[in-house]
Amino acid sequence: METAEQLKELVKQKYSEIALQDKDTNQSSCCGAGGCSTEVYNIMSEDYTKMEGYNADADLGLGCGLPTQFAQIKKGDVVIDLGSGAGNDAFIARAETGETGKVIGIDFTPAMIQKARENAEKLALHNVEFRQGDIEKMPLTANMADVVVSNCVLNLVPNKDAVIKEIFRVLKPGGHFSISDIVLVGNLPDQLRNAAEMYAGCVSGAIQKELYLELIHSSGFSNVKLQKEKAIIIPEDILKNYLDEEGIRQFKMGNTGIFSVTVYAEKSTTAACCAPGCCN
């Protein structure tokens, strides 16, 4: 299996390709970089088109939920969007927070940052900003955000615990997050877990649902709850790339489940400036 740095480079390469593609190509492939499947389906993405602030140029079809729909953003809020891509969730968050608020998108991929900035300029949104950075170590000061949102991004990050602790650090006391992500119940076959395309497609980088929730609890968050959950089905023509017929049969009959979840949690008003163990 690749090292953490190799996985990060894989994500950067894949999502640089994605930034140059259209939405239909991204939605019709498992990895968003083309050619993974001949089936027509949306493996994970949700329909944003009816949400205020939606911009078609910013929608690359890469999400696995609608976190901004559940994020309880208020007028004047400072909102951070992790893995902001071409700006889709950031622009919807801007519609919620209005002219008196601020939205900061953070993305690891220079091509995505460029695309998001171009989209923001077209929309003449002067309180939406995009910064290139690693969400394991965000280019943000502590206690600055009212709300953090993210859509199908943490599963791409090798050190998920570091990201969750960073979310805790940048949120104001009393702030909260709403994050859509991919989690597992049961273990994926090794062939899928080790596949680079499946990693960039958000599946093999996912961790167990219970561990995911435990990382959130252990980082100091309270009132943790699932806002939405749905099963994700990997099409058979993708499975055939990694498993033989018997392997596919066992995978489908087994107890392994792949789910999109949207999780909410709060940083209490009495919380310290950062998560337990991260102030060293």
End-to-end distance: 30 Å
Biggest sheet: strands, sense, closure? 8 strands, mixed
- CATH architecture assignment: 3-Layer(aba) Sandwich
* Rg result: 18 Å
Helical element count?
11
Structural class: alpha/beta
- Give the C-level CATH assignment: Alpha Beta
What does this molecule look like?
- There is one protein chain.
- By secondary structure, the protein is an alpha/beta fold.
- The chain has a single domain (4-266), classed as Rossmann fold.
- 33% of the residues lie in helices and 21% in strands.
- The protein has helices spanning 4-19, 23-27, 67-70, 88-97, 110-123, 160-170, 190-193, 196-200, 209-218, 236-239, 245-253; strands at 78-82, 102-107, 128-132, 145-151, 171-185, 207-208, 222-231, 257-266.
- Strands 1, 2, 3, 4, 5, 6, 7 and 8 form an eight-stranded mixed sheet that branches.
- Helix 1 (4-19) packs parallel to helix 5.
- Mean pLDDT is 82; it is low at 26-42.
Helix and strand topology:
Layout: H1 4-19, H2 23-27, H3 67-70, E1 78-82, H4 88-97, E2 102-107, H5 110-123, E3 128-132, E4 145-151, H6 160-170, E5 171-185, H7 190-193, H8 196-200, E6 207-208, H9 209-218, E7 222-231, H10 236-239, H11 245-253, E8 257-266
Parallel strand pairs: 1-2, 1-4, 2-3, 4-5, 5-6
Antiparallel strand pairs: 5-8, 7-8
Helix pairs in contact: 1-5
